[in-house]
Specification:
The complex is a heterotrimer of chains A (288), B (333) and C (274). Chain B is mostly helical. Chain B contains 15 helices and 2 strands. Chain B has one domain. In chain B, a hairpin with a 2-residue loop joins strand 1 and strand 2. In chain B, helix 4 packs across helix 11. Chain B is globular, with a radius of gyration of 20 Å. Chain C has 2 domains: 184 residues, P-loop containing nucleotide triphosphate hydrolases (Rossmann fold, 3-Layer(aba) Sandwich), CATH 3.40.50.300; 78 residues, no CATH class. Chain C is 42% helix and 23% strand. In chain C, helix 3 packs parallel to helix 6 and helix 5 crosses helix 6. The chains are: A mainly alpha (288), B mainly alpha (333), C alpha/beta (274).
């Protein structure tokens, strides 16, 4: 009986990981950058969502998500343009760039602690406490929101990347920056837009995750686990990131039940290491 | 802003070869070791305590510097290896009555073995290695916090035994400092020697261009293992001293934030520079002690410091200092 | 002419990337102390051939024999030890070292001191370092950059970077030197002096393989030439035979349809240097 409930909760968390992992993968593809600030952008998104709810009490939840995502995307755009692009332009090493994103992550998470306080916050909306009944089990009412947003966002991204001019330009810039720039695609702009999109998607995940947990400056940890998801699903592959997110979400929830919930975070990483040992390029990776 | 960065960049590139680099490294060694042995011992009291803390983190940062700054193997779990060293050493002293020098060696070996295990288990390069080192850090921290029977869990270990060397019990902070400063001096000297010559060049080649390193016959996989094992062993040594300073041992000294702090130390000091690692450790340990009123801003300030130093001083404080002294010399001529 | 002994033999060497055959049943014989040119249109598989010989990528089929030993699946470092060293299409140096240090890395396999030795044996280390540095200086002088020994790599011109890369390769004391587009980015004066240098090296007994686009350079320098297109050999012979071969002329002028195919195989070449 408990099993299906656990599975549902694993699926829900898996959705969150998937979304953040998709952000990781997008930035990696567009800029060749391992963005350790992705989780912190998600955390900022969750806090911005909190401020929106507090300041605009009448706003329906399904509007809070895109609003917080848009604001965070702007922040992401600014970060990419001001800090990351100049360093990439200088031909900085991978080590340097990772340290830079780590630094940005520290500023974001500790800045959030200064702005919103050190205590975990709870979204003051009914959705936080409401439950639905699915197969007679009580299930947090936010789960359908999570599932729907997840499907909508992934479908939207798919349309964006395959059908629209912007998406095709982003892909062109990611695959071959030089050729793309000859064809009139601005690599700097394309990189910043990809980074902003990833930040926005992460923020949406943060707002959706908030009702089933607390909002705190330590939420960035989720981002690192989402990174593990992106890696085990093959970094740079969007379907891989989605699958990886579910593998980590379900794996750690069920594994936590079977072994011990204290080792839940470890399980996520052991899962990743195990899968990479068997398939070094990740689940969706091509051979060689 | 960018012109400053560019100047620092080009200036630090001047004359970095063979003989002059050799002389410069030993000159920096003389200055730093001189300060290390004079300042805390003569000032005493609180300054001695600061000196103890700085020395421990300087050792740890040296280990991280050769991994990250020299050989380009970014580790996000350095504190975990300090933790392995700390617990190995304390548990051996407390439960098995092992004398400190042997426990210190065991700490280095245990951390090296864990590092080797990590590097072997995760035969991955680039991105995969980075995230795996982070995961390794999380796993170690969770084991330290939850394996209560062995480690005392999150409550930690109290009543750390005094250091015993050759039958003498070192009870005072001065004695502890002498032990630490000896270790740091010795390690620093050995690492300078290592950095000049075949192995050091192979590490730097590995860090700067892997394909080119292979093309001259450097067995990159072997050197990667070697530098990771060495860096982790040094972290283990640093970790073994930590509980003797704190008189208490808890998993909270070995979190992700501690790993990050070590990374900030070497970046602020200057990636690839051994004296830079020590300077960075000194700044990041001493500054917060004098800014206790602003403790809640500590990590925020560290983040700003990291990003600002990376943008303004891409070669860190050591690089900036070097170009400054060269500028003066050129002026004098 | 001087020596007809074969130093390197490729026999049916094949490398596929996904569905594309980057190098198809490549067979080459390289004579000792000669210059062997490997030419062909963009994406013909020349660089992949170099990767296969130097060990950066490994063959799916076929055999590579160097000085009587099968090296097909050996690691790159062990091929350097056997005497094969290469340069890259764009010079790959160590950008934060001095010129002298870069060349000194080439002495890696000639130095014996290990981890403990470098830290603890003071006299032996000093002697070894002195030998390494003076050898590195000598190789720098060989390529004409003796005066730049203490300059940082970042200050070099493109042509000088190529020369430093050659000096580093020479420092490994190879028997066979693989030069990937050694003249691209060089001015005519530099190109001529590189040509002189290579001739001199061959006179001293070195064997050289060139991947090259500058036809004048190749034709004037090489003893033998192999022409590749779409991963396969289309002609082999002396420069005189090659310029008259109709297949070679067709491959270089190409037809529109061929142009398209060649673009495709260019993409297939990309993963060869990760």
């Amino acid at each position: 009986m408990n099993f299906s409930l656990q599975l549902l909760s694993g699926l829900a968390v898996g959705c969150i990981y998937s979304l953040v992992a998709v952000g990781f993968s997008m930035v990696y593809r567009a800029m060749g950058l391992v963005n350790f600030a992705q989780g912190d952008l998600m955390m900022i998104g969750a806090f911005i969502g909190y401020s929106i709810i507090v300041n605009l009490p009448g706003l329906p939840f399904w509007l809070v998500v895109p609003l917080a995502a848009a604001i965070t995307a702007c922040l992401g755009y600014a970060v990419a343009q001001s800090a990351l692009w100049p360093a990439m332009q200088r031909g900085a090493s991978q080590t340097y760039l990772v340290l830079l994103t780590l630094g940005i992550g520290i500023i974001l998470s500790n800045g959030a602690r200064l702005v919103w306080g050190a205590n975990p916050l709870v979204y003051p909306i009914p959705l936080t406490h409401e439950t639905l009944r699915i197969w007679d089990y009580p299930v947090p009412a936010v789960y359908p929101f999570i599932a729907l947003t997840m499907v909508a966002l992934i479908a939207g991204l798919n349309v964006l990347f395959t059908r629209t001019w912007i998406g095709l330009s982003l892909r062109a810039a990611a695959d071959d920056a030089q050729t793309a720039s000859v064809m009139g695609v601005n690599h700097r702009l394309a990189s910043a837009i990809s980074f902003a999109l990833a930040a926005g998607i992460g923020a949406a995940a943060g707002v959706l995750y908030a009702p089933i947990t607390f909002v705190s400056a330590d939420m960035g940890m989720i981002g690192i686990k989402a990174f593990a998801a992106a890696v085990l699903g093959s970094l740079g592959s969007i379907p891989g990131s989605v699958i990886g997110g579910f593998v980590i979400g379900i794996g750690e929830t069920l594994g936590g039940q079977l072994v011990s919930s204290e080792y839940q975070d470890s399980l996520a990483f052991l899962l990743m290491i195990g899968i990479l040992l068997i398939k070094p390029t990740g689940l969706m990776g091509r051979k060689g | 802003m960018s012109t400053i960065a560019k100047e620092a960049h080009t200036a630090s590139h001047q004359s970095t070869s063979g003989v002059s680099r050799h002389r410069r490294d030993w000159a920096a060694f003389a200055v730093i070791v001189g300060i290390l042995w004079c300042l805390p011992l003569s000032l005493g009291g609180f300054y001695l305590y600061l000196g103890l803390a700085v020395a421990i983190y300087a050792i740890s940062a040296l280990g991280l510097q050769i991994m990250v700054g020299l050989a380009g193997q970014l580790s996000l779990g350095h504190a975990a290896f300090m933790g392995i060293g700390a617990y190995t050493s304390v548990l051996l002293q407390k439960n098995a009555g092992v004398p400190f020098p042997a426990a210190l060696a065991a700490a280095a070996l245990a951390a090296a073995a864990a590092g080797l295990l990590m590097a072997q288990l995760i035969r991955l390069s680039g991105v995969y290695f980075k995230i795996a080192t982070f995961g390794f850090g999380v796993v170690v921290h969770q084991i330290l916090s939850n394996w209560t029977a062995l480690t005392g869990g999150s409550a930690g270990v109290r009543a750390i035994p005094a250091i015993g060397v050759l039958g003498f019990q070192i009870e005072t902070r001065t004695g502890l400092f002498v032990c630490e400063a000896l270790t740091l001096t010795l390690l620093y000297a050995l690492l300078i020697r290592l950095s000049h010559g075949k192995i050091g060049r192979a590490f730097r080649a590995l860090g700067q261009n892997e394909a080119a390193a292979r093309s001259v016959g450097i067995a990159v996989a072997r050197y990667r293992m070697m530098v990771i094992t060495l860096g982790c062993a040094i972290a283990g040594i640093a970790g073994a001293y930590l509980p003797h300073l704190m008189r208490f041992l808890s998993p909270e000294s070995f979190t992700w934030y501690e790993s990050l702090t070590c990374l900030i130390m070497i970046t602020l000091g200057g990636l690839g520079s051994l004296p830079g690692a020590i300077i960075g450790a000194a700044i990041l340990i001493v500054a917060p002690e004098y800014l206790r009123d602003f403790a809640q801003y500590k990590m925020f300030a560290f983040g700003i410091l990291l990003v600002a130093s990376m943008i303004l001083l891409p070669r860190g404080i050591a690089g900036a200092g070097m170009s400054l002294s060269r500028g003066k010399r050129m002026h004098a001529q | 002419m001087k020596s007809s002994q074969t130093i390197l033999t490729l026999r049916g060497v094949t490398r596929r990337f996904g569905g594309l055959v980057a190098v198809n049943k490549l067979s080459i014989e390289v004579k000792e102390a000669s210059i062997h040119g490997l030419i062909g249109p963009n994406g013909a598989g020349k660089s992949t051939a170099f990767d296969l010989i130097s060990g950066l990528t490994s063959a799916d089929a076929g055999e590579i024999i160097f000085r009587g030993e099968i090296v097909t699946h050996r690691a790159p470092e062990s091929r350097v030890a056997a005497g094969i060293c290469r340069t890259f299409q764009t010079p790959k140096l160590f950008d934060e070292m001095s010129v002298l240090d870069v060349v000194a890395t080439g002495r890696h396999l000639h130095n014996a001191l290990g981890l403990w030795g470098s830290m603890f044996s003071i006299a032996r280390k000093r002697a070894e370092e002195a030998r390494t540095i003076s050898a590195a200086r000598e190789f720098l002088t060989t390529v004409g950059l003796g005066a730049k020994a203490d300059a940082p790599v970042a200050d070099l011109s493109y042509g000088e970077r190529r020369l430093v890369e050659i000096a580093r390769a020479l420092a490994t004391e190879p028997k066979l030197l693989l030069l990937d587009e050694v003249t691209s980015g060089l001015n005519p004066v530099e190109t001529a002096s590189v040509g002189e240098l290579l001739r001199e090296l061959v006179r001293l007994g070195l064997t050289i393989m060139l991947v090259e686009h500058d036809m004048k350079f190749v034709m004037g320098l090489c003893d033998d030439i192999t022409v590749m297109n779409y991963g396969s050999v289309i002609a082999q012979g002396s420069p005189g035979e090659i310029v008259q071969n109709p297949d070679v002329v067709a491959a270089y002028l190409g037809s529109p349809r061929d142009g398209q195919r060649s673009r495709r195989s260019l993409r297939a070449d990309a993963p060869a240097c990760p």
